[in-house]
Structures are given as C-alpha cells and as structure tokens.
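Protocol step 4 of 6: record predicted structures for both targets in the notebook before any analysis. Target 1:
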Amino acid sequence: MKTTAISEQNIQAVKATGLDTRAAVLKRAVRVNVPVRKTFVQAPRGSTSRHGPLKEFVTGRDLRGLKAYLLIVAACSSGKDGWSTRHDSAVWARLMDIHTTATDQAARTGAWRALKRLQDRKLITCTRSGTLITATLLREDGSGDPYERPVGASDEDLYLQIPSTFWTKGYDEAVDLPALALLLVVLREKNWSSFPAEKAQDWYGWSADTHERGLKKLMDLGLVERRKHFTKAPLSPTGVTMAYQYQRTAAMRPRKARKKTTTPAAGTTVLGGFGSQSAAGAAGRGR
C-alpha cells in the first residue's frame, strides 16, 4: 500500500508560530493579568537613583531581552515550580521569534544569549541540560534576591499589571522598544498622569526623544490615549499652563478573572450571597 509523503509546504502550514507558542505558555500558566513590580520601571522615592532595571534594556537597545523577560514573568505563575519555566532551546527561540530570521542552530544560540543577558542583569537565573533551558525568576529590582509574588504590601512591593491579551492579540509584535518601555511606564501610574519628556532622563534613564517616540507609538497603536490638562498660572501670560495627560485604553486595562461556576447537587437549595471579586492591581502612587 502506497503512502503519500507530507510535503514540506504542508508541514510549514501547520507549524506553530511564535504567537501560537506564546499563547500556549500563557494558557498553561492560567494568566489573566501578569504582575510586575513597579521597581522594575522606577526605583521608589528616596532612592539614590530613580532608574529601574528597565533603563538597561532601553539604553542597550535590547528589545528581544525585554520581551523575553516579560514573557518569563508571565509564564512563572506558581511558586510550586520554584518560579521557573523550562523549554527546549528551539521553543525559547520560537517564543522570541528568532526562528523567523535564523537557522535552527543559530536561533537556539540566540535564545540562550538573550537569557544569559537577563541573568547578567540579575533578573533570572538560567541553566541548561542538553537542549532544555530552565529560567528562574529573581526579584524585579535587579537586586538578585529570590522572587516572591508581589502583593503590594510596601512601596517596593507595588506592582503594575499587563493583561495577557498583550501577547495573545499580538500587541507585543507591534510595539518597538520605546513603545514597550513607555507602556510599562504608563501602566505603572494612575490613569491620566503626566509624563513630561524633560523628566525622562532623571526619572527613567533614557532620552526625551525616546520618551516622546514611545508615547506617540502607543497612541498610534491605540494602547494609550491623551488629553490636555489646564492648571491656573497667575504669573503666566495666558493665566494657565497646559500639560498632556495619558492613560491606558481598554485594550491594556487589567482583565477580571472568570468566576468558576459549580452545579449544585440535586435537591440542594441555592441561597443568595455575596460573590468574591477579583482583586485589582495595587493602587498606583505618584512619582
């Protein structure tokens, strides 16, 4: 009996993409929103420097590393696995979309190098066993301390939330480095906050030009919206000053987890009561 060989074209048609792989990782992690400590973006007030580890990604032009780090945070949803996630190096390469522009071996090497950069910044530890690579989270402030789930109990423990739809709807593929950095900045603050470009170097560690380009890209993508805000200024010629304020759009607001429903046993009387609400992210605080 003859068997028909599957053509290379058909194999490519069903082969998992980077988007497919990222969606599978998030599904396995059962993530609705991904918490990231705000200290990753900016150190608390009173610190010697306000710059967070995010600065090194921006000034080092490491978009691949930043995307990889945020995805690792998303993948590590439980302390039961030691806040670790493990994949074959080919899967790591596909998670980072390296496979689209490199040979298989080069893509595997590129993925390992990206993870090693994260380790050098004391954001993760990574180990290899054959082709398997395990990444383990460390605290987001770059201190090298062990990771624990943020609960918002102190200034150092406050966190922002990235909705999982950032990955599953492909927004991560649309943002460039300035836009991704500024998205984290906007998510870190309350709605309708000001982000003056002249403060970017002192507050975050990157240039005013990078700051402005990031905000513009976010507005073009529909992830952030802007409004004018006027304040009284008795000594100015017009009597008022104007500043732009920004907030995340609905696409980037935290999602509510779906409530699990249980079917009562036959003959059971169902009584009314108060359902628990999913906790929102820790409240933003001013810079």
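Target 2:
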Amino acid sequence: MAEPTIASIVTTLLSPGKGLLAADESFPSIAKRFQPLGIPSTEETRCAYREMLFTAPEVNEFISGVILFDETIRQRMQGGIPVPELLHQLGIVPGIKVDTGTVPLANFPGEKITQGLDGLRERLSEYRQLGARFTKWRAVIAIGEDTPTRTALETNARVLALFAALSQEAGLVPIVEPEVLMDGSHTIERCEEVEGATLQSVFDALCDQRVVLEHMILKTGMVLSGKECPQQADVAEVAERTLRCFRRFVPAAVPGIVFLSGGQSDIAATERLNAICQTSGAPWKITFSYGRALQAPALERWKGSADNVAAAQASLHHRAKCNGLAVLGKYSPEMERVKPA
C-alpha cells in the first residue's frame, strides 16, 4: 500500500461530516480533569482513558484524526497494539502535539510564548517513524486592556511559521493553532479585532517562511464575547462575525479551518459550529478539533472504572455524532434530548 501524500492526509482529515478529537492533554491538564472525579493520574489510568476514547464503537464515522500527546503515541493498547497502529486500522489519522507549552514572554507582562523549537526537527522525524501523520502547535493570545501587543503577535506568529515549515519538511501536515483566549470581559467586537490581527500576523509569517498553505490546516477559535462580558453575543452573531473575520484574513489557499472549543460548553460549541457551517460560500472546509467539548460527558460517566466504559463510549459517540452533523449544518437541539445509553 502506497504511503499517503501530505495532500491526501489533508483531504482525509477534512473528510465531510468528520472532525478531530484533541486528546493531547499534558500531564498537568489531564490530572486537573481527573482530580474532581477522584481518578489518579498515572500512566495506567491515562492509557485506559484514552483507549476508552479511541475504541468507542463507530466513533470513526465522525472522527477523522486524533491529536496525541508524547506519552500516548508511545503507548500500547490491550493486546499490545501501538496506539498509532490502532488508529490507522480504524481509518483515523494519528497526529501529535509537538510544542512543549507556554512560558511568559520576557518584558511583556501577561503575554506568553510557546516553547518547543529546540530539537524539533529530530523529534518530528521520530514522531513520523512512530506513525504520526500530522502535527499541532498552539500559541495563546490574551485579550486585556493593553494586550495583545504587536510584539507578542509577531513573535508567536514567527514561531508558528517555523514549526509549520519544519513539519512540512518532515512530510507532516501542520495544524497551526493561534488561540485567542475567551478569558476576560471583552466584547465580541474586541475579540473580532484581536482575532483579525492575530490571523494577519500568522499568515504574514507563514508566507515569509515559505510554508505551503495548501498543505496546512488552521486551528483557531470562534469570535466570541469574553467569558465575563455582560453582553453575550447570540449564535447568529458569532457565526456572522467569525466568518467575516476569516474571509478578511485567511487565504483561500488554506484547505481547512478546524475550531477549538476553548472553554465553551459542549452543546454551545456544537450549536455555534452548526450555525457557521450552515452559511454557504466559504472557500475552506470547516470542521472541529475539540477536546473537552467532546470528552467531558464521557469522562464524567467513565470515572476511571472499567464497568463504565460502554456508557462513557456512548456519550463520546453522541457528542461526536452531533458535531459531525453540525459540520454538515444538520444538527438540531432535539438531538440532545436523545440521551446516550
């Protein structure tokens, strides 16, 4: 069987009615999710949890790719099968988070830069040998009274661009993720302004770095009111402003945009995705790359017990199906009344 090309991997990831499962939580992040449910965060529990997610019956009908963490891509499921091989057998493309997290940006209080470029070329080669076919790198942009600064935008954009270029050099599809955080009391108008400035900086840097836009995917957030903003925009306004912002700043050469959930509730993330995808005429394919918005109900039902695996998988399948239909603009709130078994 011929090795898939970088172009064919992009096409598979953007298959109609499918999206990505972000299962790339770092050790502190997954421990934070386990702790309220009394689940210890050990290598064994993390492996069992992700096996529960990946082996959910028929979830591959709605999931085209999974973003893995460094630990997970090296693990084996029951029966000794490596995680990337299991996903390949299910028709799901394995990917890998390659950044190593954020740190404060020197001399710019409240702003951050993402680390992980040191040794990245060598790590990318190893990840490809382990079975990864795409990569992801996240930058975070905070909205405040005096932020983001031009320096923070441009510095993060240059790092994202270098990551993308190195990924393509290794034959991997880069998912470029500039996340404008929901935290704060900013208005949706302010979010649209910052999202636009962020995307402009990112694509300027990508072009300067000679990244092939046709061989990458953009992962970013919707244009939303800040979490603490007293005036919360409705679904229709979110869709209108998000698409307007993308049309202004995302080149048509980019094959697809995948949304992060970024702290939205699972149902709100689905409703907004559906509204965006119901608008025709976008030059890119649009889908989802959700972590918590797909996993939260399943994790709550699993609770670390093998006895709860089937119920947890039913919850994951339900959320994946709802979002898969939202990508097609065919989701309806009535679907939430059908509770998973």
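Step 5 preliminary note on target 2. Strands lie at 19-22, 63-68, 93-97, 102-104, 112-114, 134-141, 173-180, 217-220, 256-259, 285-290. The radius of gyration is 19 Å.
Proceed to step 6 after PI sign-off.
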